[in-house]
Design a protein that fits this description.
- There is one protein chain.
- About 40% of the residues lie in helices and about 15% in strands.
- The chain has a six-stranded mixed β-sheet with strand order 1-2-4-3-5-8, sandwiched between helices. It has a two-stranded parallel ribbon with strand order 6-7.
- By secondary structure, the chain is α/β, with parallel strands linked by helices.
- It has ten helices and eight strands.
- It binds N-[2-(1H-imidazol-4-yl)ethyl]acetamide and zinc ion (ZN).
- Zinc ion (ZN) binds near residues 130, 149, 182 and 299.
Length: about 325
């Protein structure tokens, strides 16, 4: 119901925009309001090739499954790379217990830009990959590359971080790479078995009393012809953020990726950030033709570099930059 409201609100917004663009001789032609000034901000160009390389570099470590050498090497890489872009990088190290009783050594990595600013945006993604290809018919007990599920969100955000280092935005930005998202139970019957790194962070925020105006999660944002529908918890808890992001995407010509349609509910990292108190959305690829609602490569060995398309990374990354650089102006 709230989603319908969101969609109606968006459509109403579109009509308003169309009306505003039409020439009306009764209206003053010179606009000096805040929205006009906001559009004069020069938004940096998101480099999709750079983002693509950030994805492939992660994949080259091998599956980033907790308690493996590849996982440790990738965490070191993420921390070192973010440290090139800002001096404010915090690592949270802990051990969390998975639904099957396995103790997972986990590391959340959080980078801050303009740490002194009160107004902040939290951008986040999980960086670990699933230990099993449980949606695959073959080698289903072996770990996946996770180029899309894990690699893509981090790849986009590393390029966002690089851009933030080159040109400071007006607002404060935190980029969080959360660990231990994908060691969850298939079918999800044990409650809270996914997003263990994010759950840890909500109980132990990297800064005491941390808050942000809103949060944006990127999950599976790299595959060819991805389709982002309005995820259920996002529409119910942060419809204004959905509107902001989807409108920005539309303004840049990315409405073929960002569809104004209702998607399913996903108990993803953003669910716990919402419960913590920060209204957050999940930009997540959806597929109407599959039984589970996710893309056909989801949790299979097909989730490798061959599904990644720089054009999708560009649509997501440029949309984020558009929103981030126009905040607070
Ligand atoms: C559930 O399947 C309930 N949550 C996990 C969402 C997910 C898995 N995103 C990426 N991998
Ligand atoms: Zn997954």
């Amino acid at each position: 119901m709230n989603l319908n409201k969101t969609i109606r609100g968006f459509i109403a917004g579109c009509w308003w925009m169309v009306a505003a663009c039409g020439s009306n001789p009764q209206q003053p032609q010179q606009q000096t309001d805040a929205s006009t000034q906001a559009s004069s901000v020069t938004v940096p160009d998101f480099n999709a090739d750079s983002a693509y390389t950030f994805v492939s570099t992660q994949v080259e470590f091998g599956p980033r499954v907790p308690n493996t050498a590849a996982h440790i090497a990738c965490a070191d890489y993420l921390t070192a790379t973010l440290s090139r872009f800002t001096p404010q990088v915090i690592e949270q190290k802990s051990v969390v217990t998975a639904f099957d009783g396995t103790n997972l050594t986990m590391r959340n990595v959080i980078a801050s830009f303009n740490p002194e600013k009160k107004g902040r945006i939290l951008l986040f993604a999980h960086w670990d990959t699933r230990p099993w290809a449980d949606q695959d018919d073959e080698r289903s007990r072996e770990p996946i590359d996770g180029a899309d599920d894990g690699g893509s969100g981090v790849g986009v955000l590393l390029e966002v971080a690089r851009q933030l280092s080159l040109k400071s935005p007006t607002i404060g930005v935190d980029i969080a790479f959360f660990d231990a998202e994908d060691w969850g139970e298939k079918g999800g019957s044990s409650e809270d078995s996914y997003a263990l790194g994010t759950q840890y962070w909500t109980k132990n925020p990297h800064v005491a009393g941390y808050t942000a105006n809103y949060g944006v999660l990127l999950d599976m944002v790299g595959s060819r012809n991805a389709q982002f529908r309005i995820e259920g918890f996002s529409g119910e808890n942060a419809s204004y953020v959905v509107e902001k992001i989807w409108k920005a995407a539309a303004s840049l010509g990315y409405s073929n990726y960002f569809l104004f349609e209702q998607g399913g509910y996903v108990t993803d990292d953003h669910y716990y950030v919402i419960r913590y108190g920060i209204p957050s959305i999940d930009i997540i690829n959806s597929d109407k033709t599959t039984r589970n609602g996710f893309a056909s490569h989801w949790h299979t060995h097909n989730d490798n570099m061959t599904v990644i398309d720089a054009a999708t990374l560009k649509a997501v990354g440029q949309t984020l930059l558009e929103v981030v650089y126009k905040e607070g102006n």
